[in-house]
User: What shape does this take?
Amino acid sequence: MKKFFLAHTCLELQLNEESLKLYTELQLQGFGKSSYIKAQIAICLQNLQEVDQAVEAFMQLQKTDPYQLDNMDTYSNLLYVKDMRVELSHLAHRACNIDKYRVETCCVIGNYYSLRSQHEKAVLWFQRALKLNPNYLSAWTLIGHEYMEMKNTQAAIQAYRHAIEVNRRDYRAWYGLGQTYEILKMPFYCLYYYREAQKLRPNDSRMLVALGESYEKLEKPRLQEAKKCYWKAYSVGDVEGLALIKLARLYEKLAEDDHARAAYTEYTNEAEAMGLTDREEQSQAYRYLANYHFRSKQYDVAHKFAQKCTDYPETREEGKALLKDIASRRCEADAASTNEGSRIADFPGMEVMATADRLSPMNLTFTP
Assistant: This one.
């Protein structure tokens, strides 16, 4: 029983790796067929942002116990995130057939309508869940998301506040409040709520990026904190792929050209490795790198990035203009080297002087 308690406590405290380890050990110690442990492992995987593995774990759980409704609301959230409409529809029908008066059933159906962009119906089903259990945390959080979709920010704030009253350790409610106040253009409020969310999820890149954006909106006094947030988000594993490009733009904004060049280069390398070629951020990165290397008189590298700029409609004209400038500079450099060579040919004495400039340092070792 001690391990069950420790595993559950770790999960509540968002110590997901420790919780997953304990639940795995329990499975090996004779609880391999326990549907409770299987569900808890799936929740751990969800918290670790291993969405595909979490979905697979819930699918296996359904095969083992097809009539279980516990934690099916969490499963419906994963299907919503993955945009798995058919699977979510089947889950909603099955849950309704098993017990349509369970809060999990109402939550699953609400997610189904939300995925179909029928937000009014989704709110209705989440409200039904709250009538069955006023302290049902998921319903408060999800109804807040629906009000956000409906542009009803005041109702969303009230829903998220109710969720925090039910459980102050629910990072989704804090994060939702931060997003709401960001829409209302109240940066100090959203900074506070994003901080609270980040405390609960210190290694979640989404919280760190949101926090960095809030610091960045406060301009100069907090730009250093924004840089730290973006860098940490990139270091812990950027889920959305936004931290590095935001960090590069911030370096560019602060005129830290060398750091900006390094960040943009790393971003373009990663994007090319993943096979991404249609992102607007890439065109901006190529434009900056082309101009940076052009200013540094590294015309071959600048030509490569300018050529890539022409692949994007946003930077095509600027890339073409830069290619013309590079060609012009190369012609000037060739002409200058040709003139230098002709002067040396006309004045043989200058050849010695020109060669002297290229001599290696003299060996000043004394030999007795």
Q: What stands out?
A: The two ends are 86 Å apart (CA to CA).
